[in-house]
Amino acid sequence: MFLPLFIFSAGANLLSTKYVISKVVPDQIPSSGHINVELTIDPPYTGECFCKFDTTIVKGFGEKDGTVICQAPRHIGGDIYVYFSPDGENWSTGLLATYTVNVKTMWIIVAIIAGTCLASFGLFWWQMRQCKNSSRKNRANAQVVRDGNFGFDDDEGFQPLRRNSPHLL
């Protein structure tokens, strides 16, 4: 009584079809994802199915000619394996594909960081000049106060302070 049940359960596994992926187009997937990826599988499968990109499972659709179309999910850059399954449980052997980092996005990030650094340096430089000019003015004012000469020369009466006056630094 237990023997036929064993044969039936083993027979169900023996009857399951083993799918093989022979090609992934494109084999270089942008890390942003959201593009259609075509898997060429053997034997051909028609209807709704599943694709697995590394560990992320997405729905796909198989066509008569053995092409399965899935939308690639977002993923970090690097090598991954792509798998196919008609039921979401029994998976094919994986085929290697590569997620590539979008260089345009990287350049935008680098430009933003560089611009922020330059702006910070410019602000720092401007602030340092303001402090330097402020300290010069303070020293000049202190010198005038210390000398007690506020634009009057004892011998000649009132003389406006000139640019090259010894009273200003």
From TrEMBL:
Key words of the record: Membrane, Signal, Transmembrane, Transmembrane helix
Coiled coil: none
Record has Signal as a keyword: yes
UniProt signal peptide: 1-17
Membrane-traversing stretches: 105-126
Keyword Transmembrane helix among record annotations: yes
The protein's name in its UniProt record: IPT/TIG domain-containing protein
Gene source species: Tritrichomonas foetus
